[in-house]
C-alpha cells in the first residue's frame, strides 16, 4: 500500500487561495497517475483533478476549471493542487489517490484508484 499523505489544508475566506500537496514518503510517484478528490458535507465524493504519470495530461471537474491547477514536482516527488478564487462550495475533505499507470493515463473516477491518503480539510468561509 502506497503511504499517501496530503498537506496544505486549512481555513480561507472566499476568493482566497490554498495549495495542497500529495506525497508518499520513501516512494516515488513517477509511475503513478494522481487524482485529487473531495467530499463535502452531505455529499458524495467527487473527482476534482487528475494528472498522468508523464504530467502531460490533466483533467478537471467542470466547476473548478480555471481556478484549480494540478501539477507534478518531480524534484520534490509531490503532486500539488493549487486552488485559487475559492468558494464556499469548495469546502470539503480533499483526498489524493494514486494508481499505477503509464504515459498519459489518468482518471477522475475514484473506482480507478487503489491507493488513498487520509484526507485534509479545506474550509472556505467568511
Describe the structure.
This protein is mostly beta strands. It has strands at residues 5-7, 10-12, 18-23, 32-39, 46-51, 58-60, 68-73, 78-83, 92-100, 115-116, 120-124. Helices cover 0% and strands 45% of the residues. Strands 2, 4, 5, 6, 9, 10 and 11 form a 7-stranded mixed sheet that branches.
Short summary of the structure?
With 126 residues, the chain is an all-beta fold.
Write the layout of secondary structure elements.
Elements: E1 5-7, E2 10-12, E3 18-23, E4 32-39, E5 46-51, E6 58-60, E7 68-73, E8 78-83, E9 92-100, E10 115-116, E11 120-124
Parallel strand pairs: 2-11
Antiparallel strand pairs: 1-3, 3-8, 4-5, 4-9, 5-6, 7-8, 9-10, 9-11
What would the keywords be for this entry?
126 residues, mainly beta, seven-stranded mixed β-sheet, four-stranded antiparallel β-sheet, 11 strands, globular
Question: Stretches where pLDDT falls below 50 for ≥5 residues?
Answer: none
Query: What is the count of helical runs?
Result: 0
Q: What is the helix fraction of residues, given as a range?
A: under 10%
* Average pLDDT level: 96
Give a count of the beta strands, DSSP E runs of length 2 or more: 11
Radius of gyration: 13 Å
Amino acid at each position: 500500500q502506497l503511504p499517501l499523505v496530503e498537506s496544505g489544508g486549512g481555513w480561507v475566506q472566499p476568493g482566497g487561495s490554498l495549495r495542497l500537496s500529495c506525497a508518499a514518503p520513501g516512494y516515488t510517484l513517477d509511475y503513478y497517475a494522481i487524482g485529487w478528490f473531495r467530499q463535502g458535507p452531505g455529499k458524495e465524493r467527487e473527482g476534482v483533478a487528475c494528472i498522468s504519470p508523464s504530467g502531460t495530461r490533466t483533467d478537471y471537474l467542470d466547476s473548478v476549471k480555471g481556478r484549480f491547477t494540478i501539477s507534478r514536482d518531480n524534484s520534490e516527488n509531490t503532486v500539488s493542487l493549487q486552488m485559487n478564487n475559492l468558494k464556499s462550495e469548495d469546502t470539503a475533505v480533499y483526498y489524493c489517490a494514486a494508481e499505477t499507470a503509464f504515459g498519459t493515463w489518468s482518471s477522475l473516477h475514484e473506482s480507478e484508484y487503489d491507493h488513498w491518503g487520509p484526507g485534509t480539510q479545506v474550509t472556505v468561509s467568511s
